[in-house]
Amino acid sequence: DGGITQSPKYLFRKEGQNVTLSCEQNLNHDAMYWYRQDPGQGLRLIYYSQIVNDFQKGDIAEGYSVSREKKESFPLTVTSAQKNPTAFYLCASSDPGQNTEAFFGQGTRLTVV
Amino acid sequence: RKEVEQDPGPFNVPEGATVAFNCTYSNSASQSFFWYRQDCRKEPKLLMSVYSSGNEDGRFTAQLNRASQYISLLIRDSKLSDSATYLCVVNTDSWGKFQFGAGTQVVVTP
């Protein structure tokens, strides 16, 4: 079955630590995205990538980093510089072009302890 | 001003009733429009795309009004399983840089 896999589902981080969230897709999509969702709020774009070895900052990139070394993979690192990292993180992918929807992974719930 | 705005609700709907709600967007160059459904603590899932001529999928009807820059979703014969948050999503360019509304919560009651 084609889809997007995020891991882990739940992640606990101590303050001051970097953590990396995994996102893998086998849909052969060129574009991949990372969003953050806080309670009662919409999804906010952290980073997106349109092609391998290229990525762009979204609306809230500070404190995050990404890489896109393979088409299938788009890991997100939450660094210690992110002041309020506790949130629900969603990875998505899509094909370029009009009227093509985004497909989401199951999300990673990150909690700082 | 947010790019995509929705009434957060909740819309409390008796089972079997009809509910409708809108979403407004600010970028007149927006190209694609979608409604997603999100259940509590889960990922969003595509409910339906919204086409210029309006479209229907079973009990769900979506409309697009480009002149007034809003899209709407109507749910007929509401089921208990329709209880969820409905996200309005607008695509502002061909590379799928999606903008999400904060969602409208629908609660269907017996």
Protein architecture, described:
The complex is a heterodimer of chains A (113) and B (110). Chain A is an all-beta fold. Chain A is built from no helices and eleven strands. Helices cover 0% and strands 50% of the residues of chain A. Chain A is globular. In chain A, 38% of the residues are buried. Chain B has 110 residues and is mainly beta. Chain B has strands spanning 4-6, 11-14, 19-25, 32-38, 45-50, 55-57, 60-65, 70-75, 84-91, 98-100, 104-109. In chain B, strands 2, 4, 5, 9, 10 and 11 form a six-stranded mixed sheet that branches. In chain B, strands 1-3-8-7-6 form a five-stranded antiparallel sheet, with no helix packed on it. The relative contact order of chain B is 0.34. Classes of the chains: A mainly beta (113), B mainly beta (110). Chain A binds chain B through residues 31, 33, 35, 40-45, 48, 50, 88, 90, 92, 94-107, 109, and chain B through 2, 4, 8, 31-32, 34, 41-46, 49, 51, 87, 89, 91, 94-98, 100-103.
The total count of strands of chain A amounts to: 11
How do the SSEs of chain A run, as a string of H and E?
A: EEEEEEEEEEE
Number of strands of chain B: 11
Radius of gyration of chain B: 13 Å
Most strands sheet of chain A: 7 strands, mixed
User: Helicity range of the residues of chain A?
Assistant: under 10%
Shape of chain B: globular
Coarse structural class of chain B: mainly beta
- Give the amount of beta strand of chain A, in percent: over 45%
What would the average pLDDT of chain B be, to the nearest integer?
93
Number of helical regions of chain B: 0
Oligomer: heterodimer
Q: Looking at the structure, what is the overall shape of chain A? A: globular
Mean pLDDT of chain A: 92
The helix/strand order of chain B is EEEEEEEEEEE
Runs of chain A in which pLDDT lies below 50 for 5 or more consecutive residues are none
- Which structural category fits the helices and strands of chain A? mainly beta
Overview in brief:
The complex is a heterodimer of chains A (113) and B (110). Chain A has 113 residues and is mostly beta strands.
